[in-house]
Amino acid sequence: MPAPLLDLRDATAGYAGRAVLHGLDLTLRAGEHVAVLGRSGAGKSTLLSLLHERLSDRAALIPQAAALVGTLSVFHNVYMGRLDRHSAWRNLRMLAFPVRAEVDAVRGVLGGVGMEEYVFRRAGALSGGQQQRVSVARALYNGRPVVIGDEPVSSLDRLQGAEVLRRLAARHETMVLAMHDIGLALAHAHRILVLDDGRIVLDAPAESLTVGDLLPFYG
User: Fold this and answer.
1) 84 exposed, middle or buried (CB, 10 Å; 0-12, 13-18, 19+)?
2) Which backbone phi and psi does 21 adopt, to 5 degrees?
3) What is the rounded CA–CA span in Å between residue 34 and residue 6?
4) Does 8 share its domain with 110?
5) Alpha-carbon gap, residue 151 to 132, rounded angstroms
6) Containing domain of residue 22, as a range?
7) Which pLDDT value is given to residue 89?
8) Nearest-angstrom CA–CA distance, 67 and 17
9) Among 6, 121, 157, 206, which lies 20 to 30 A Cα-Cα from 70?
């Protein structure tokens, strides 16, 4: 069994001086695909923020809001996924004069999420679903072994969402994704975590669960 990437014991987390997560025990291992479920306000986003804080040097983040710079092109927003890999001078140069090799690399990633033709479109002119796919492409381009995503397919239909999840799984060894679609979660995750009132109330293999097992947590 791989060594833990993260091992939390009786952890507490929150924001603005208010605790949201309580008594959190969680071990995450390389290679796991984890879906985090729970009703709105259960603490899913806070958990993902905590995981990203602890794993930031190994993790790409897909925030709940696409968090794109609307005045910049799709290319530049995806390229931001690797800003920390290059010098400030190179990044400034890329802003004004993108080199062909980098454009081709970004275009290839965008092709995987159906956005290749939008590479030089202004990000702010895209629909919500298109912006979400660009945010996913930025994480794919980042390429770190762990991806942490807060509702990364919520603006997509089920077929588009399934394809994006397959792309993420192929690119990132380990995934932790907050999701609202129980069927997609069961189909694409190895492990299901359910949060309720800031606590983990279910942690089980996806193959052992059904939609019916999980619906009560949304009642």
Assistant:
1) exposed
2) -105, 140
3) 13
4) no
5) 10
6) 1-58+144-219
7) 83
8) 24
9) 157
Clarify whether residues 35 and 138 are in a common domain: no
Query: Per the structure block, which two tokens stand in for 120?
Result: 């030089």
Residue 160 and residue 102 share a domain: no
Tokens for 75, please give them.
């290319």
CB atoms within 10 A of CB 131: 22
According to DSSP H, which parts of 13-157 are helical?
Answer: 44-55, 74-79, 88-96, 100-112, 128-142
pTM beyond 0.85: the answer is yes
CA angle 174, 159, 142 (to 5 degrees): 35
pLDDT of the chain, 219 residues: tens digit per residue:
778 999 999 998 888 778 889 899 999 999 999 999 999 989 999 999 999 999 989 999 999 877 899 999 999 999 999 888 888 888 788 788 888 999 999 999 999 999 999 999 999 999 999 999 999 999 999 999 999 999 999 989 999 999 999 999 999 999 999 999 999 999 999 999 999 999 999 999 999 999 999 999 987
150 and 129 both lie in a single domain: no
Q: Are 84 and 177 in contact (CB under 8 A)?
A: no
Q: pLDDT at position 90, please? A: 83
Query: Other CB atoms closer than 10 Å to residue 19's CB: what's the count?
Result: 12
Q: 133 in a domain, yes or no?
A: yes
Quickly count: other Cβ atoms within 10 Å of residue 35's Cβ. Answer: 25
